[in-house]
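Support case: user asked for a sample of complex input and structure output to validate their parser. Sending the pair below.
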Amino acid sequence: MSDSHATSHVIVNNKPLRIAVLLSGSGSNLQVLINAMQAAELPIEIVGVISNREDAYAITRAKDASIPVAVLSHVASGKRMGIKTFESHASEQLNAWQPDLIVLAGFMRVLSGSFIDSAPAPMINLHPALLPAYKGLDTHQRAIQAGERHHGCSIHVVTAELDAGAVLTQALLEVNQKDSADSLQARVQKLEHQLLPWTILLIAKDVINLSNQGNENKATYLPALPLKLWLDK
Ligand code: GAR
């Protein structure tokens, strides 16, 4: 992290929230966080990015912003890296960065309970559906096929069970009759780009407190969770 970034952060309680981001793809959500950090709109410092794909465009975004990147490719030198090896390298890297919060933003590997429990910070995941509905993959297609009138995205605490941890925040939209899986994905991504920085702001300001996450994997909070944003019609 360059000094120019460090000095441009909004400082809350005298220090920005140190964030590590795990991802696998384009990184449009990472870009939103980078922009907010650089514009001093969020009290964060992105201390590092871990990608499990060497072709993820997010790597370019991070490097352009002088953010340290660890590429822990699931296929290295023609050999597949098992999840245990990935987790051991990722743990080492996270321990070195000492984040306050770990954000999974389009990270497409399933992590083990022991990795999650021993992580140096609480972990949240951005999921493209209104949990607890549509855990897993192909969420937009499944929502359309089921004739859902509403769809959106959620941010939840990461636990060993896939997409099942406490839901912290959600952003909703109305599904249009003409929506395809692709158009819905594009519309939901716009919501994600608002939901993720908003949620991180709530965590940075302690409106959502994740510190007792190891205790029943529940977040403590002031208002009832999940907090919902209705962002589109
Ligand atoms: C986001 O839409 C996120 O919800 C989804 O991956 C996309 C990453 O986009 N995450 C999952 O599907 C997790 N199971 P981005 O790389 O442009 O930020």
